[in-house]
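Hi Y.,

Following your request, here is the sequence exactly as I used it, all 332 residues.
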Amino acid sequence: MAVDEVERHGDSSNRRYSVAVRNRTARTAVLGVSVRRPTDGKHSSRSTAVLRRRLVVGSLVLASLALLTLSFRDAENGPVASAQEGAAALLHPFQVAADRVAEPFRDAYAWMDSLLDARAEAERLERENETLRQKEAQGELARRENARLRDLLEFRDGPRFPEGYTGLATAIISRPAGAYSQAIVIAAGRDAGVTVDDPVVTQDGLVGTVTRVGPRTAKVTLLTDDQSAASASIPATGAYGVVRAGRGPRSPLRLDRVPKEAIVRDGDTVVTAGARSQRLLSIYPRGILIGRVTSVGRSDTDLYTQVQVTPFADLDSLDSVLVLLPEDRSER
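Below is the corresponding structure, written out as tokens. Let me know if you'd prefer a different format.
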């Protein structure tokens, strides 16, 4: 009977142990991981490193304050000054070596900096040179324009200026577009008193006549145009004719309808004939220079003498002209 009790007691102990094991296994399965409590009285390595850094920083700050206090209170030849001099003498070779090592880098930096400055200075000087060139060109144009206008004014006030006219000096704003376009545009029009058929001249001679007028501009047809014509004379011999456009670049003008018996010589001056009678008035005043005779030809089959004329005015390089305005237009 005692054996039976022992066996029953052992069976009950095994049942309690297996229940405890099952309960612990279920708790572990629910939590997923086993929980361990940290050991009391021990710090982690991270906390220890942070504490050490703080101690080092505090020690350095205290040492700096102590050295500053001793430096201010110490005399010039005191122990702190001696220690500073000794440290400076000890570190001088290292400083010299560091300066020698850093010197090429400093030179390179200074060279690059000077190169950038030189480039910026060169760009600035180039801009200034461009501005000066533009001003010089404008000044040269103004000087030439002033000289031409002065010549025109002297011509207007001189003895060769035709009586009964006033001169209007104006600039040219458009030149001939091609070889077949013999006309220019001037910067004066109806508002300035310019009308159609007004003569246009320079100080050298006749240029043409106004053929179209706008409020502020006017078109001037040159003597070299096929539609232009002007009655002319040779004062030295008394010969008369009509100046027209020539038949080639070497003869810009020709003097037509000159009788064969008229005397015409190379080098004779050709001028405008002006009015021939009270009923027939010329649009050009008398005595304006036109050009010089450069060739004279006669043949048995021609009815008139062939006369070639080179104009005094350079019609290919005009910059400013003078428009002749009649003082009394009612007579025209």
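Residues 81 and 276 are 119 Å apart (CA to CA).

Thanks again,
Q.
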